[in-house]
Design goal:
mainly alpha, elongated
Length: about 140
Amino acid sequence: MTENTAEQPAPKPRRYRTLPEKVGSVVLGFESIVVFLAGLVIFGLSALPEGIPRWWGIVAGSVGFVVTLVASGTLRWSWGRVLGWAIQIVIALGALLVPAILLVTIVFGALYAYAMIGGSKIERRVQEQRRESGAV
C-alpha cells in the first residue's frame, strides 16, 4: 500500500433501520413467495368466477408477488407500512376464492402485526435506553 489512506474519504455510515422495518421487510419478503404460490393454486383449482380465464390467477399471483416484494422495501416510510396492511387485506379477500388462503392471511397477518406493533414498542424502549445512556 503505497497510497496515503488519509486522502480517501471515510465510508458513509449505513442508515439506521428500525426493528419494524427489519422484521416487516422479512415478513413481506417471505409472504411475496406465498402470494405467488396462492396465484398458482387459484389457477390450478380454476377458482375464479365463471367468465374469467384461469390464467388470471397466475397474473394476480405475479402482480401480488411484485407488489409485496416492492412494499418490503418501503417500510421506512409510514405510507409503506400502510401499504403492508393493505396487502394483508387484499390477501384476506383471496380467501373468498380459496378458503385455505385464510390460513395464509392469519399467519402472515399476525407476523406483520407483531413486526409493526410489537417492533415499534421494542424500538421505543431501545431508543429511550440509548438516550438515557448517552449513546444517541
